[in-house]
Amino acid sequence: xxxxxxxxxxxxxxxxxxxxxxxxxxxxxxxxxxxxxxxxxxxxxxxxxxxxxxxxxxxxxxxxxxxxxxxxxxxxxxxxxxxxxxxxxxxxxxxxxxxxxxxxxxxxxxxxxxxxxxxxxxxxxxxxxxxxxxxxxxxxxxxxxxxxxxxxxxxxxxxxxxxxxxxxxxxxxxxxxxxxxxxxxxxxxxxxxxxxxxxxxxxxxxxxxxxxxxxxxxxxxxxxxxxxxxxxxxxxxxxxxxxxxxxxxxxxxxxxxxxxxxxxxxxxxxxxxxxxxxxxxxxxxxxxxxxxxxxxxxxxxxxxxxxxxxxxxxxxxx
Length: 318
Ligand SMILES: [Zn+2]
What we know:
This protein is of the alpha/beta class and 318 residues long. It has helices at 101-106, 115-124, 126-136, 186-190, 221-230, 247-251, 266-278, 302-317; strands at 2-5, 9-11, 13-15, 35-40, 52-54, 63-64, 77-79, 95-98, 138-142, 148-155, 161-167, 183-185, 215-218, 235-238, 258-261, 284-286. The protein binds zinc ion.
């Protein structure tokens, strides 16, 4: 897989690759059905009968690219948001977009913490909370009239920033879902044409842990960070949701031992089916730790368990 930074500005004119192919009569050799025209990617229209390339490279060789002069404007580039998507299919499906790494660092300000970080600091103490947020490079972003949101960056093992998930948590540490789900993506802010390939949240951390260290995979990014607060020596990653667990995400981790910690209830059964079906022969174990905990409701996860336990312990101490 190859990654390149997302470019908002694209060539306005490109050779027509709509299907079925439109092949016209070549203006030079006069043969029918051999001339591929240039199209304007913002409209899908052919630029002009003289602009294009002839299939008969040797016998004819006609080629004419539209330039600003001929078109009466210098508008040869356009914002990728204005491009009809069907005129910009991926050149190669193995090429995806990525985010410039400085965008990630801009969100990592030690003096501006997210509402979730503040909430967890009150429970687990700021020392342990800040350590885990720094380790996972969880950023803070103000987004519209939402609160101080977390940015969970998907940084892969080769230090490529795939995207960032922007999530708003209220003062109670729960996600804001009213009047709408407060979730957004950094790559969406840049444009809809972005070719996204997601990775596990925390994937880059395998560079810091020995090869024989198991990787613990949970559903949500918040859970991975909380688990690391409680067990700093263990490597937790998050797949981002019950349906987001993918074989290729696990394969990226090499031959490490994998332990899945699904949310209680539905996720446990779904992940077990998925492992049996798609991940046979891989070194994967599914923890049933939560299934046996009576004080944990369906849909709750291992972080909820740690938070309940910590609040209880904090109460005993005071
Ligand atoms: Zn020709």
